[in-house]
Design brief:
Largest sheet: 6 strands, parallel
Number of strands: 12
Radius of gyration: 20 Å
């Protein structure tokens, strides 16, 4: 995502600041507007937003100045950290700006009852609680904080609700061996290399109006080979490489557990696909999961989507070994061919 950050009102060291820094570390394009408060880390950690536009405007405090910047940056969504004392002083213009921008707000659990007592039912559906355990992880890498994950999902949801409507067909894609060159247990950002044609394929899918979501197993975390922060660094590098080719991913979801952990988020389990579908208002039945392993195919088919095997990465070997198993909906050479198959199927 391209994120504009209205810095005035964002408390130095507070949850919104930590989450913004975490989103920058995850590879989202971040541009700070307005003068940060004294002691803020935002000014030194921002990234250009790729021009004078943003997808989401983030801020805190009053709604009117944040909404003004949202309009200036042509942001499609407004997400604010809400303080009950400041919110109580909002005037008519703040409330108008909040309503016009269909603003989403993050509130502390301790203030939830107060907000519910003075907001409309429509507004209440756009309020989200900060994670209860977020404040206890201040020494963790910003990319791994619970606040960062929550803010990222709120932004994704806010954008999705500004889209044409629910039930969109999406292309779910595996990472290693599908979008980037397979390097077993990749943990170094400099090792990220896009597979030829992958960026163009994803750009065509998004240009046609279909979201692109990366779904990845990262068992190296669960096996102790590298940290979750390293996964985010690699994902950030992938985002940056794709952005340079005109592609913004709609979401990334990954499972950090070892294969024997018994979780339901590791492919071929479908939890990550279902969660992304709920956040982004997607139709799984009309979507497809593309990857270089049979577990990718099975993950897609397990949630009612199509499953497509590509021959890049481990795919050619998987194809040879899969003669006795249920077939994929399609077996193609690479992501470019998978994108063409998907677009012909849905359009």
């Amino acid at each position: 995502m391209r994120l504009g950050v209205h810095a005035p009102g964002i408390a130095p060291g507070g949850r919104m600041e930590r989450a913004v820094l975490g989103l920058a570390a995850r590879g989202h394009a971040v541009a700070v507007v307005g003068r940060p408060a004294a002691g803020s880390a935002l000014g030194d950690s921002s990234r250009p937003a790729g021009g004078a536009e943003a997808d989401v405007l983030l801020g805190a405090g009053r709604a009117l100045p944040a909404a003004w910047w949202a309009a200036r940056l042509r942001a499609r969504a407004l997400v604010l950290a809400l303080d009950p004392a400041i919110h109580a002083r909002w005037g008519l213009l703040d409330r108008w700006a909040w309503s016009l921008g269909a603003g989403h707000g993050l509130v502390e659990e301790s203030a939830a009852a107060e907000f519910l007592s003075r907001t409309s039912e429509a507004e209440q559906h756009r309020l989200v609680l900060w994670p209860a355990d977020g404040a206890s992880t201040d020494d963790a890498a910003p990319s791994t904080l619970a606040e960062t994950g929550m803010l990222e999902r709120v932004c994704e949801r806010a954008l999705a609700r500004q889209a044409a409507g629910p039930g969109r067909a999406a292309l779910f894609v595996d990472r290693d061996g599908t979008v980037i060159v397979e390097r077993e247990y990749l943990s170094e950002p400099h090792g990220v290399e896009l597979i030829p044609g992958a960026a163009e394929a994803l750009r065509q899918v998004r240009t046609a109006g279909h979201p692109v979501v990366v779904i990845s197993n990262q068992a190296g975390v669960g096996r102790g080979l590298f940290t979750e922060a390293r996964v985010h660094e690699v994902m950030a590098r992938m985002r940056e490489r794709l952005r340079a080719d005109g592609v913004e991913l709609d979401a990334i979801r990954f499972c950090p557990h070892a294969p024997d952990a018994g979780c339901d988020c590791r492919k071929p389990g479908g939890r990550l696909l279902r969660e992304a579908a709920d956040d982004l208002r997607l139709s799984l039945r009309d979507s497809a999961m593309v990857g270089d392993r049979w577990i990718d195919v099975d993950a897609g088919r397990g949630v009612g989507a199509a499953g497509v095997l590509v021959r890049t990465g481990y795919g050619a070997g998987e194809e040879r070994s899969g003669a006795d198993r249920p077939p994929a909906d399609a077996v193609v050479d690479d992501l470019a061919a998978a994108a063409r198959w998907f677009l012909q199927r849905v359009d």
